[in-house]
Automatic annotation (TrEMBL), chain B:
Taxonomic superkingdom: Bacteria
PROSITE patterns (alphabetical): ABC_TM1 (PS50928)
Protein's organism: Bradyrhizobium australiense
Family statement drawn from the similarity comment of this UniProt entry: Belongs to the binding-protein-dependent transport system permease family.
Subcellular location(s) of the protein: Cell membrane
Name of the protein in its database record: Carbohydrate ABC transporter permease
Keywords annotated in UniProt: Cell membrane, Membrane, Transmembrane, Transmembrane helix, Transport
Gene3D superfamilies reported for this sequence: MetI-like (1.10.3720.10)
Length: 318, 274
């Protein structure tokens, strides 16, 4: 098979001949390439090229406030930036805080998500169920930055509605965003609001894959909703759980907008999640060499996560 | 009998609580945008008030918000179109052709979903500063492709796979070119998937903050989320204007998302339930 006139020869070849070629049934060796090339070239040049640039930058002392025409320019410093990052308490603290945030939101989202999915799946109240299901896309479509703005209003010390709710429960009002625990709780609440629907919808999709006959037979067999959940519904929801754990970890590592608007990482470092921290080093301190090293370490972490995700979910696609 | 009735009532109550939970922040934003400053700053907050459109008059009197909304619209529509034009042929190739490295290529597309924008924000900032793309809408259109293109490829590959391959075979027998097959069979039949992926691309671009924040500094080119967050400076915050701007940004997208919620939900949960 020569390569160039493939499209042409395929078109001109008699149908029988084209059917006889087992490895390239009806299309040339290069045909996929033409369809793929535009997307691959574009994504490569705007995704990979900057990444390579970041790797190069991470090996230099690259402070944007220095002028490029200064004597030493941007000197090559080897792994210095990486050593600095790995010995930087702030970096580790913000990674730990990101982990703590993940452990604060995800279990709640899973518990609420299962509960909501079961309520949306249960027969009865079909109109109310339909309305509720539709309403779940509202948090998901809300601009993250605006979620942060709403959060600042709701958790305002003087006129926030959160304090009003607390007073109904008999708890005295507090300056949520002004103290470390309150600010952390506030971003946790907003994340739970925004992402619980996603978790619930994934569980619901799993639930709706339970064959109807099996579920009905099980309902006749047992009165206990617990047994139904445990032996019939849960097995269908579990694949979704792994997806949730991995996708949410990638999302938490990415989380920037809402927290940036609500707290800018403060007070102190109470909500200084990893994206906020890297952004500050890069665009406020302008130590781009250091920030690039942090970004590359974050990228490595993300690649490990996404490999894990792909490994678990897409083995069947070859 | 009584037990089932109680169960049913609890079910309805639970659904109502979920409904209230899902809509409350949105409701609070919209109602706050309709309050005047004294009602907004009332402590404890007031739930019943005389709605006024004065905040909307204020933000639309100023060109800042309208320009920002227009910028967002231009960027989001362009990047969505571009990702559909580039992504659908790639999705077709991944769905129907066999070639070496296909699985790896597909994984590469998908893994872009996981990458944090902060990883790319820095080098993209430096590069676009060098080539003079800083403060252009083009740089946003291009950088948004890094998350839009994977979404389009992901959803459309799945959609195109569900189209019966027989159609393609018989079209080929009738002498249709490969591009004809893609253009006249796959695109029209796969339209639901293409539309869903376009909706996602639009919403993600419309909502994006980080890249827009660092790559655009000139006032006339700022996007809507950036302008909304810019209100958050100074001593006395104009909460009415902030919430009105938030509503202008969020309302069209949420209404649209609710209208196509069935497709949205399918797109969102795709891949998680296989």
């Amino acid at each position: 098979m020569t390569s160039v006139p493939q499209n042409l020869s395929t078109r001109l070849a008699p149908p029988a001949a084209s059917g006889a070629r087992r490895h390239h049934p009806g299309y040339g060796r290069w045909t996929p390439f033409f369809f793929l090339a535009p997307a691959v070239i574009v994504l490569f040049s705007i995704g990979i090229y900057p990444t390579l640039f970041a790797i190069a930058t991470s090996f230099r002392r690259y402070n944007i406030t220095r002028r490029a025409d200064q004597q030493d320019g941007f000197p090559f410093v080897g792994f210095d930036n990486y050593f600095t990052v790995l010995h930087d308490r702030g970096f580790w603290d913000s990674l730990l805080l990101t982990g703590k945030f993940y452990l604060s939101v995800v279990p709640v989202q899973i518990a609420l998500g299962i509960l909501i999915a079961l309520m949306l799946h249960r027969p009865g109240w079909s109109l109310l169920r339909a309305i509720t299901r539709v309403s779940l896309v509202v948090p998901l479509a809300t601009t993250y930055a605006v979620v942060g703005l709403i959060g600042r209003l709701i958790f305002n010390r003087d006129f926030g509605v959160a304090n009003q709710f607390m007073s109904w429960l008999g708890v005295s009002s507090s300056d949520w965003l002004g103290n470390p625990t309150g600010a952390f709780l506030a971003i946790v609440v907003m994340d739970i609001w925004q992402w619980t629907p996603f978790v619930a919808l994934i569980f619901l999709a799993g639930l709706s894959m339970v064959p109807v006959e099996i579920e009905e037979a099980a309902r006749l067999e047992t009165k206990s909703p617990w047994a139904l959940l445990r032996y019939v519904q849960l097995p269908y929801m579990l694949p979704g759980l792994t997806a949730i754990l991995i996708l949410r970890s990638a999302d938490v590592l990415k989380l920037f907008d809402t927290v940036f608007v609500m707290t800018r990482g403060g007070p102190g470092a109470a909500t200084d999640l990893i994206s906020i921290y890297v952004q500050r080093v890069g665009f406020k301190v302008f130590d781009l060499g250091l920030a690039s090293a942090q970004a590359i370490l974050l990228l490595i972490l993300t690649i490990v996560l996404s490999r894990l995700y792909i490994h678990i979910f897409y083995q069947e696609i070859e | 009998m009584a037990a089932t009735r109680i169960g049913s009532l609890l079910h309805a109550l639970g659904l109502l609580i979920v409904l209230a939970f899902a809509l409350f922040p949105f409701y609070w934003m919209v109602t706050s945008s309709l309050k005047d400053q004294t009602e907004l700053l009332a402590s404890p907050p007031v739930w019943f008030f005389h709605p006024t459109l004065s905040n909307y008059m204020d933000i639309f009197a100023d060109t800042k918000v309208t320009t920002a909304v227009l910028n967002s619209l231009i960027v989001a529509v362009s990047t969505t179109l571009l990702s559909v034009i580039l992504g659908t042929p790639a999705a077709y190739a991944l769905a129907r052709f066999e070639f070496r490295g296909k699985a790896d290529l597909w994984f590469w597309f998908i893994s872009n979903r996981m990458i944090s924008p902060i990883v790319l924000a820095l080098p993209v900032y430096l590069l676009s500063r060098q080539v003079g793309l800083l403060n252009t809408r083009l740089v946003l259109v291009l950088i948004y492709l890094t998350f839009n293109l994977p979404i389009v490829v992901w959803i459309c590959t799945d959609q195109f796979r569900s189209i019966p391959p027989d159609l393609e075979q018989s079209a080929r027998l009738e002498g249709a070119s490969q591009f004809d097959i893609f253009w006249r069979i796959y695109l029209p039949l796969g339209l639901p998937g293409v539309a869903v992926s376009a909706i996602f691309a639009f919403i993600f671009s419309w909502n994006e903050l980080l890249y827009a924040l660092v790559l655009i500094t000139s006032q006339g080119l700022k996007t809507a989320p950036v302008v909304a967050t810019n209100f958050m400076s100074g001593y006395e915050l104009p909460w009415g204007k902030i919430m009105a701007t938030g509503t202008v940004i969020v309302l069209p997208v949420t209404v649209f998302a609710m209208l196509v919620s069935r497709h949205m939900i399918r797109g969102l949960t795709m891949g998680a339930t296989k």
